[in-house]
Amino acid sequence: MRVGFVGLGDIGMPMAQRLIEQGFSVIALDTDGAKSAALASSGAEVAEAAADLYDCDVVGLAVPDDSAVEEILLANGLLDGLAEGSVVLIHSTILPETARRLAEQGARRGVTVSDAPVSGGAARARQGDLAVMLGGDPQVMTTAGKVLDALASNAVHLGPSGAGAATKLANQLAMLAALAALHEGLSLAEHYGAEEKTVLQVLGYGTGSSWVGQNWGFFDDLVRTYNATGVPLKNRPWSKDLWDVVASARAAELRVPLAGVLSQVLPDAVEQHSSPEAKGK
What we know:
Layout lengths: L1 E5 L5 H10 L3 E5 L3 H8 L4 E2 L11 E4 L4 H10 L2 H4 L5 E4 L5 H13 L3 E4 L2 E2 L2 H6 L2 E6 L4 H4 L1 H7 E8 L3 H29 L4 H8 L7 H4 L3 H12 L7 H15 L5 H17 L2 H4 L2
Parallel strand pairs: 1-2, 1-4, 2-3, 4-5, 5-6, 8-9
Antiparallel strand pairs: 7-8
GO molecular function, one term: oxidoreductase activity
Organism: Pseudarthrobacter phenanthrenivorans (strain DSM 18606 / JCM 16027 / LMG 23796 / Sphe3)
Protein name: Beta-hydroxyacid dehydrogenase, 3-hydroxyisobutyrate dehydrogenase
């Protein structure tokens, strides 16, 4: 099976490496030549343009946002060039409406386009231990099953196109709400003399336990990585994903007041907590 992979960022690179390690013939496309060269040293073929991916059976996309997904599929012609029966897995966190629209356009060309966002982080991606949230044609679990098995320990089909994207946004909202709560709770506990490390240990045994608390420091590391690689503030999950929740809810005429508040206050809190000044306090 020939697999194309577009986007070799923090999550895309380890996903592509995992596919190579599992024996897939991988051809990768990224705007950063250094990243493409690094993956080539692991055994990948390097694509120069979307047209180089036309003969792929499955193409995975791990690009920053909706506009980048649409650029590669539509503006750059990938969707038009893929053969009937091929599959596109959109691993990016995108709006459900974008997923629906692209699935419809793919269906008209005989190409299955599935929203397939992932969760778990780079370390789990390297181990093939991601969660994949799929929306669209359920046959994708079979047609792209070998790829999904290589990448994920938990790949779940959730419903029609957009259901996977919406579930990923639900995951992000739950995670980021916990992050905001911990920022405020730790500030309160520290003000009254408790140490952050000890508070986190105690919370880990209580009803306030969460993935965020168990992996405290994950977001600080992520900020440093984003700063080093030049990821814009607007594309970082504590900003972009919360705004996507708000936009998706608005399109569905749903109220998400918590997401609205978080989108206003959390981005600054995360960036400031990870700053050298904060670490030196």
